[in-house]
Design goal:
By secondary structure, this protein is α+β, with helices and mostly antiparallel strands. It folds into three domains: 47 residues, 2-Layer Sandwich (Uridine Diphospho-n-acetylenolpyruvylglucosamine Reductase, domain 2), CATH 3.30.43; 116 residues, Uridine Diphospho-n-acetylenolpyruvylglucosamine Reductase, domain 3 (2-Layer Sandwich); 104 residues, CO dehydrogenase flavoprotein, C-terminal domain (Enolase-like, domain 1), CATH 3.30.390.50. It is built from eleven helices and 14 strands. The radius of gyration is 19 Å and the shape is globular. The relative contact order is 0.12. The protein binds flavin-adenine dinucleotide (FAD). The site of flavin-adenine dinucleotide (FAD) has 27 residues, from strand 2, helix 2, helix 7 and strand 10.
Length: 288
């Protein structure tokens, strides 16, 4: 491994000033679980790493927002989220998914900010956050902007973050009472593996009719994305098996799966069909 500088700023202002919008070899490091693997395999050779370890304030803690949703600091570890009573009572769908994400050694160290900024299309949390209406606070020397999580992922390991922007926190919208949510993680090899397909769904049922449905898929496509076709098939339709199957078919027809170690593109298309339907069915059984 080539030698590099390690900066440990104490404030967010110092941290963003140490990043460089033009230089890809300068990066932030949070838990380091993704970055260190890339460095060990020489996919990434830094000239400078900017550690976020000493930063406090906005990057830490969990609190309830006025709309009943949560604001989560970017340096919150995935294990802190997994064991948080606030998360469990507000978004049980997130707590359940976190327990299936990799293993406890990774979850103890990996952070929410690193999870999102890495832009790996196989990540478990992005599709869930997409269905829950999350937004990300991105801070740079030019100030703060809010990025809708659906606009964060722009391609394979690509995000809309500029190289000198840091995610400081994530805000998840409050959900109406009785909302139906589910995350269906399908692993083809072992239970703690990366997903072959991840499907998150969220909808409201009003007098037997589906309102405001959201369906998001990860691991099958080049970036996590919502399925507009599946959502259209569900909107204002009765909560009935044929409607859920129609929505699953619409997602499988609309999305463009890509092959990886976990399956071919055609296999993934079929897995999207199966697991969108299952996620919609299980959401109805679980309710939040
Ligand atoms: C063995 C293994 C198995 C895994 N299995 C799964 C799995 O099943 N499901 C799953 O979803 N994930 C899985 N992961 C991925 C894991 O979730 C990520 O590695 C982790 O979330 C990244 O967080 P981190 O804090 O370690 O990021 P880091 O490695 O520190 O950083 C990752 C990237 O994000 C950037 N970054 C970090 N923090 C910020 C910030 N606040 N603002 C801007 N940029 C930032 C860094 O510059 C870097 O480019 C696995 C990882 C490993 C190593």
């Amino acid at each position: 491994m080539k030698s590099f500088d390690l900066a440990e700023p104490a404030t967010i202002e110092e941290a963003v000033a140490l990043l460089d919008p033009e230089d890809k070899s300068v990066r932030a490091i949070a838990g380091g679980t993704a970055l260190m693997l890339m460095m060990k395999t020489r996919l990434f050779q830094p000239t400078r790493l900017v550690s976020l370890r000493r930063l406090n304030g906005d990057l830490r803690g969990l609190r309830v927002n006025q709309d009943g949703g949560l604001r989560i600091g970017a340096m919150t570890s995935l294990a802190q989220l997994e064991y948080s009573h606030l998360v469990a009572s507000t978004y049980p769908v997130l707590s359940r998914a976190l327990g299936t994400l990799s293993n406890i050694r990774i979850r103890n160290v990996a952070t929410l900010g690193g999870h999102l900024a890495h832009g790996d299309p196989h990540m478990d949390l992005p599709p869930i956050l997409m269905t829950l209406g999350a937004k990300v606070s991105a801070v740079s020397p030019r100030g703060r902007r809010w990025v809708d999580i659906c606009d964060l992922f722009t391609g394979y390991y690509e995000t809309s973050l500029i190289k000198d922007e840091l995610i400081t926190s994530v805000e998840i919208a409050g959900q109406p009472p009785g909302v139906y949510c589910w995350y269906e993680k399908f692993t083809a090899r072992s239970a703690d593996d990366w997903p072959t397909v991840g499907v998150a769904v969220r909808y409201i049922v009003d007098s037997g009719v589906i309102r405001d449905p959201r369906v998001a898929v990860s691991a099958a496509t080049e970036r996590p994305m919502r399925s507009a076709a599946a959502e259209a098939a569900l909107t204002n339709a009765p909560l009935a098996p044929h409607v859920l199957s129609k929505a699953a078919d619409a997602a499988a027809d609309e999305l463009e799966p890509i092959a990886d170690l976990h399956g071919t593109a055609s296999y993934k298309r079929e897995m999207v069909r199966v697991h969108v339907r299952r996620a919609l069915e299980k959401a109805a059984q679980w309710r939040r």
